[in-house]
Design brief:
four-stranded mixed β-sheet; three-stranded antiparallel β-sheet; 8 helices; RES domain-containing protein; RES_dom
């Protein structure tokens, strides 16, 4: 339960205390001492289908795809990843290229003809990318030391956004009443985690036109199913990001200019 559903995750809740607590909840101390293995009757084709679809749309077919995924099941899974407590204030940053201060009307999503490929949007279809904190927003634009970053704050209303940061933490088996539904949800968790990885995978600018295709497809699917945006982990900081499908719902506030005093780099062997 700790691994599959991230239950009993408190720092003081070790395995022994978790067993005691679960035994009290179930009013059965013997059951927590038994060994269980997952049932092999529950399997998920989602992960394998996604890998095949990903490969096809990147390297073989772009618009008319042969690989078919279970759209109804995917929508059902995404409905379980709605974050109800998103902050209302978010931030967007731009590098100041001259002495002119950027005003709030210049800090929103770019015009359609100037909208390039992004992690969530295809070229020509602008979304509004926002960070949870000013430093998160600045990190996303990959500044150099000594540059000036203009950071605007935006207020967004209550929206229906899919949160792909940590599916295991957000989904709950207690919302389901049928044992078979719980078993199938457990089998689908690796698939949901892979979808979250699509939005956080580091991408080089030179390969963005191809490498962003899977995450763009995923976000367009999410948009077509009636969701307002996608929340995902930042690949360049510890913060979180929001891709808002309809930029017009965000209300701009003020703009503050920051000096980029230091940029940190962490390297590892390839």
């Amino acid at each position: 339960m700790k691994e599959d559903w991230l239950l009993f995750g408190h720092s003081h809740m070790d395995t022994a205390h978790a067993k005691d607590l679960l035994g009290e909840i179930l009013n059965n101390g013997d059951i927590v001492r038994r060994s269980f293995i997952p049932s092999e009757s529950y399997k998920s084709q989602g992960l394998a289908q996604w890998d095949m679809l990903r490969d096809e749309m990147m390297y073989f077919n772009r618009w008319f795809l042969d690989v078919v995924i279970d759209e109804a099941r995917l929508k059902q899974l995404l409905e379980m990843l709605i974050e109800e407590s998103l902050p209302q204030r978010w931030y967007r940053a731009r590098i100041r290229t001259d002495d002119e201060e950027l005003t709030i009307d210049k800090m929103g999503a770019p015009p359609r003809r100037r909208s390039s490929n992004g992690r969530a949007n295809p070229a020509g279809i602008p979304y509004l990318y926002l960070g949870s904190q000013p430093d998160t927003a600045v990190a996303e634009i990959r500044p150099h030391t000594g540059e000036f970053a203009c950071v605007a704050d935006f207020t967004i209303p209550n929206i229906k956004a899919v949160d792909l940061r940590n599916p295991r933490k957000l989904v709950s088996p207690f919302l389901l009443t049928d044992a078979s539904e719980i078993g199938q949800l457990r089998a689908d968790l690796p698939f949901l985690e892979r979808l979250g990885e699509e939005l956080t995978r580091p991408v080089q600018p030179s390969g963005a036109a191809i490498d962003y295709i899977p995450s763009q497809y995923l976000c367009e699917f999410i948009k077509k199913k009636g969701f307002d945006g996608v929340v995902y982990r930042s690949s360049v900081s510890d913060g979180i990001n929001l891709a808002l499908f309809d930029p017009s719902v965000a209300v701009g506030g003020g703009v503050i200019t920051y000096n980029v005093a230091k940029v940190s780099v962490l390297v590892g062997e390839a």
